[in-house]
Amino acid sequence: KMSNNLDEVFMALSDQTRRDLVHSLAEKEQTISELAAPYDMSLAAVSKHLKILEKAGLLRRRVDGRTHYCSLRPEALGHALDWISIYRRFWNDKLDVLDNILTHPSKENENA
User: Fold this and answer.
1) Among the listed residues 56, 93, 91, the one whose alpha carbon sits nearest the alpha carbon of residue 72
2) pLDDT per position in the chain (112 positions), as tens?
3) In contact, 69 and 29? CB cutoff 8 Å
4) How would DSSP label each residue in 26-81?
5) Number of domains the chain contains
6) Where in the sequence is the domain holding 81, given as residue range(s)?
7) Considering the entire predicted model, what is its pTM?
8) CATH assignment at residue 33
9) Taking the CA of residue 105 as centre, how many other CA atoms within 13 Å lie in the half-sphere pointing to its CB?
10) Angstrom distance (rounded) from CA 58 to CA 20
């Protein structure tokens, strides 16, 4: 299940418009009309993007009458961040080794 959820989260975030929508939702809860305002696309097109984010678990929708409010579910990013952090540690370790080599060259490197 976690693997499927990661696939859905990364697929949802693979589109720039959806990443922008997530960024916008990180600021505050918004209606679909408010979310659609900055884009030169139909409300239906923005709604399709929101449905993909919703399916991936990245947003929750609250309906009040005819108005749909969307808010970010930041906990849904947790597994993706955990997965990414493995590679952050990998590269930090590699960069620490490189930094050590550059700041403390061995005798062999000085004679080369």
Assistant:
1) 56
2) 455 688 999 999 999 999 999 999 999 999 999 999 999 999 999 999 999 999 999 999 999 999 999 999 988 888 888 888 887 777 878 888 888 888 887 755 554 4
3) yes
4) HH--EEHHHHHTTSSS-HHHHHHHHHHHHHTTSEEEEEETTEEEEEE-GGGGHHHH
5) 1
6) 2-111
7) 0.74
8) 1.10.10.10
9) 7
10) 13
